[in-house]
Amino acid sequence: MHTQNIQKLEKALKNVQQYQDTKVSLSPVFANNVMREIRRMQITYTENWMDRVEGMLLPCASITGLATIVLLLFGFMTFSQIENEILTLISQDATGIVSIQLLGL
Amino acid sequence: MRHNGIQPQYKYSSQNDEDCVSISRILSGDVDAYETIVHRYQDMVTMIANRHVPRPAVEEICQDTFIRAYKSLATFQGKEAFSHWLAKITTRACHDHWRSVYKNREDTLTSMTRGMEDWVKKTLDTHSQAEFETHVHKDEAKETLNWALDHLSPQDRMVITLTHLEGHSIHEAADLLGWSTANVKVRAFRARKKLKNILEKIAGED
Questions:
Q1: How many Å apart are CA B10 and CA B8, to the nearest integer?
Q2: Does B6 touch chain A (CB under 8 A)?
Q3: Distance, CA of B2 to CA of A49 (rounded, Å)
Q4: Which of A27, A31, A46 shows the shortest C-beta gap to B35?
Q5: Number of structural domains in chain B
Q6: Chain B contact probe: residue of A1, A8, A9 with most B CBs at under 10 A
C-alpha cells in the first residue's frame, strides 16, 4: 500500500511537470528589451575596443618619436665626422688628385 | 562578441535555411537581424524555461538565454538545428539559475503547507483517472512538486526534471546539460532515490 502511494505520488508529480500550463506570455516589449541590451553590449564592446586602441596610441607615438630623435642625432654625428674626414683628406692632398678626380672640385 | 568580419563557419541545410540566413547577416554585422531570431524562438525558449524555473524567473531566463546565444553565435557550427542549440543554452541557463538560487539561499527548507498536505491526501485518495487528473492541474500540485525538488541539489534537480519527469533519455539530458552520459546516469539514479525518500516521507506522514 505504501509503495503504491509513493508510485501514485510519483506519477502525479510527473503529470504536473508534463501537463503544466505552458502558455507563459512574456512582456510585449520582451524582444525590444533583448535588442536594447544587445545594442548596449555592442556599443560597450566598440567603446572598449576604441579605448584600447587609444591607449596603445600614446606609447606607440612616444616610442616612434624617441627613435626618430636617436636616428637624427646619430645622423648628425656621423655626417659631421665624415665632413671632418673629407676636409682632412683635402688639406693633406698636395697634388690635388683627390680633389679633382674623386670629389670633382 | 564583435561579429563584424567573422566568417560564418556553419554548413547550410534545408531545415535551417531561414536561421542560417539570419545568422549570416548577424555575423556580417547586421545586429538588427537578431530580432527575427528572438521573435522566432521566444515561445520555445519560454516553454523550456517555464518547465524548469518558477514563473517569475522565466522572463529573466529567456533574456539571459538570448543574450548568451548572441554572444556565442560565432561558435554555432550548423551541425544541429538552431532550435536544438538554443534549447541547450536555455537548459543551461536554467541550471545556472538554480545554482545561483541555492548559493544565496539562507533559510532552511520550509515544511509543507496545509494546501500541499491536502493535495497529497486527496491525490492518494483518488480512485478514478479523471479525479486524478483534476488534482494534477491544481496550483498546489505545482507547489508540491517544487517543494519536493527544492530538497535536491541544482544538478539533481535538473537531471530528475529532464529524465524522470519529462522523459528525456540519459543521452538527451547529457546533451542538453553538456555533461557526460555517465555523470547524468549516476546523478539520475541518485536523484530518483532521493526523490523517492522525500515521497516516502510525505506518504508516510499522510
A1: 6
A2: no
A3: 10
A4: A31
A5: 2
A6: A9
CATH number where B192 lies: 1.10.10.10
Q: Do B51 and A22 lie within an 8 Å CB cutoff?
A: yes
Cell triple for B59: 522572463
Question: Within this chain, do residues B188 and B144 fall inside the same structural domain, yes or no?
Answer: yes
For residue B154, give its domain range: 114-205
Closest approach of chain A CAs to the CA of B32, in angstroms? Answer: 8
Encode pLDDT of B181-198 as tens digits.
999 999 999 999 999 888
Coil, strand or helix: which one is B16?
A: coil
**Which residue reads 543551461 in cell numbers?**
B92
Q: Which of B63, B83, B104 is the last residue of a domain?
A: B104
Q: In degrees rounded to 5, what are phi and psi of residue A87?
A: -60, -40
Boundary-marking domain end, from B104, B128, B145: B104
Q: Contact A12/B200, CB-based, under 8 Å?
A: no
Say whether both B118 and B95 belong to one domain.
no
* Contact call for B145 and A26, based on CB within 8 A: no
Alpha-carbon gap, residue B169 to B191, rounded angstroms: 15
Same domain, residue pair B86 and B62:
yes
Chain A residue closest to B38 (CA)? A31
Task: Give a yes or no: residue B60 inside a domain.
Answer: yes
Distance of CA B7 to the CA centre of its chain: 31
Q: What's this model's pTM, rounded to 2 decimal places?
A: 0.74
| Whether B135 and B63 share a structural domain | no
Residue B1 domain flag = no
**Using one digit for the tens of pLDDT, what is the confidence trace for A68-79?**
999 999 988 888
Yes or no, beta carbons of A41 and B136 under 8 Å apart = no
